Amino acid sequence: AVHRVEGFDYIDMVRPVQFDGDTIGYVQVRANLDRLVSRLISIATSALGVLLIAVVIAYFVSARLQALISTPILSLVDLMRRVTEKQNYRLRAEKTSNDEIGVLFDGFNEMLEEINERDSKLAEQNEELEVAAEASLKAREAAEAANTAKSEFLARMSHEIRTPMNGVLGMTQMLARSGLNREQQRLTNIVEQSAESLLEIINDVLDFSKIEARKLVLEKKRFEVRQVTEDSVDLLSARALDKGLGVVAEIDPEADVSILGDPMRIRQVLLNLIGNAVKFTDHGEILVSVARETSASGEEMLRFEVQDSGIGIKDNNLQLIFDSFSQEDGSTTRRFGGTGLGLAICKQLVNLMGGDIGVRSARGVGSVFWFTLPETDPILMPGNTATSAIEALKVLLVDEN
Ligand code: ADP
To answer: Which of 42, 127, 210, 316 is buried most, with the most CB atoms less than 10 Å from its CB?
Structure first.
């Protein structure tokens, strides 16, 4: 215990003295604490002094280190930030020493240099690309404008030519009926035939250029499929009969409908296909059929087919013949005439009407030209499907084919 006696701090220590198991007395030691305290104070003072000196040294060392390492790294970080913010790859880090930090600066500068170079190369290429794109756009526009102008010119020209052509035809027909002698009659007939084929060609060119100039407008009215099909067959049956060919129209009861569409244009396609069939067939029969089918996308379609037993088409020409101005080969024009526009117009028309067109053929055996049309708003024709009226009849059908 610490005691205070006359202004001094003491510490007392009492211990018993034992001898043979008996306590024979006590020893008391009293120590003055002043010396201990003053010693403690002097130790603390010197420790504080050492600490102070260490702090001062540490401060100077860290200041030096900062100058050597932290400041350059911080300036590098700052530069990085500026480069990213301003996207300016021409900025450079200023090197202050040749140690590792200096190497780091060099590396960073090199990287900036490379980015800068790549950047300017990219910009150059970009500019070139832009120029090229602009040029090609202009060229495309010019080409499109030229093509439209061409189609419009053709459309206008063929339209203009048609009027005098009709005059030529009409007058020739009148001339033929004005009591000519046989030779004059023969010559007039040739003029009439030539005028007719010229008119046909002009009509084709007019249609084709109208479609190309996107000026063709389709009608949408109700018509009977059977009527259009049979009319087309009737129109060409005389020409077929002249060649000794039979023409048969077969309309599936299910396809005996009236639909919405452009009957004129459908007739045009049919006339073209049947006309070709008659043109390229020397003996046998031409079968025109209509049936219903479901397209791959699930749409209800009408499928028209014109089958002939004519000269057929070589496999590798099958796709070609739908291109404009293309015929199977050079000899076709010489033998059969024509412009090679018919099927191209058919294809464009059928596509415009939302259908497809195609052909199967075997050389020397015959061809089947087909096209499909969407069955828009069909109404089944009454009566035509009723077979009860002929159920009890016996029929004998004789046909040369
Ligand atoms: P063209 O006015 O020459 O008849 P098309 O476009 O109608 O023009 O026909 C192109 C070519 O396709 C024809 O010249 C002919 O070679 C071939 N072709 C068309 N239809 C038939 C067919 N039914 N049989 C054989 N070849 C055909």
So the answer is: 210
CA atoms within 13 A on the CB side of 294: 2
The 10s digit of each residue's pLDDT in 108-162 is 899 989 998 998 999 999 999 999 999 999 999 999 999 888 888 888 888 888 8
Separation of CA 279 and ligand 1 centre (Å): 8
Digit-coded pLDDT (tens) for 71-107: 888 888 998 899 889 888 888 888 877 888 888 889 9
Residues with CB under 6 A from ligand 1: 276-277, 280, 308, 310-313, 321, 327-328, 332, 338-344, 367
> Could you tell me whether strands 285-294 and 379-380 are parallel, antiparallel, or unpaired per DSSP bridges?
unpaired
Instruction: Please check whether residue 2 is in contact with residue 9, taking contact to mean a CB–CB distance below 8 angstroms.
Output: yes
Positions in the chain whose pLDDT score sits under 50? none
Packed helices 225-242 and 263-279: angle between N→C axes, nearest 10 degrees: 30
Distance, in Å, from the CA atom of 235 to the CA atom of 271, rounded to the nearest integer, reads 8
Q: Burial, 22: exposed, middle or buried (Cβ in 10 Å; 0-12, 13-18, 19+)? A: exposed
Is-contact 349 304, C-beta < 8 A?
Answer: no
Atom of ligand 1 nearest to the CA of 306: 23
Torsions phi, psi of 364, nearest 5?
80, -10
Rounded distance between C-alpha atoms, residue 114 and residue 107, angstroms: 11
Instruction: For residues 236 and 198, give the distance between their C-alpha atoms in angstroms, rounded to a whole number.
Output: 19
Which tokens is 177 given? 């009926």
| Three-class secondary structure of residue 292 per DSSP | strand
Residue 95, pLDDT score: 80
Instruction: Measure CA 369 to chain center.
Output: 30
Residue from 327, 333, 346 whose mutation best tests the ligand 1 pocket (most atoms within 8 A of CB): 327
d(CA 202, CA 269): 16
